[in-house]
Design goal:
Blueprint: H1 2-7, H2 12-38, H3 48-75, H4 86-91
Length: about 90
């Protein structure tokens, strides 16, 4: 949100960040679906739908989200700070 507020949604960082978040949400929903449908199965055994969701959808989507996260960090220089206290410490 701070990037979108500062640069607007037209910046590359904001667009890749939002896409990264959406793809991660899809991956989490796939994992939640697998858990929900397997929670009462004996030994949590997957059925054919669970295998398709895990192997054909969740794994590639998770890898794409990881790629986008790497792009945010290594190409676009996005990081997570401690609330802006770094400048004050550097000045001391």
């Amino acid at each position: 949100m701070p990037v979108i507020k500062r640069d607007g949604f037209s910046s590359k960082k904001a667009q890749v960040g939002v896409l990264h978040a959406l793809v991660n949400d899809i991956s989490v929903f796939g994992a939640a679906y697998n858990w929900w449908t397997r929670r009462n199965a004996m030994g949590l055994r997957p059925d054919a739908t669970n295998v398709v969701v895990s192997s054909a959808l969740a794994a590639p989507i998770t890898l794409f989200a990881a790629y986008l996260g790497g792009k945010l960090v290594y190409e676009l220089g996005t990081g997570v700070g401690k609330g802006g206290s770094g400048k004050a410490k550097k000045a001391q």
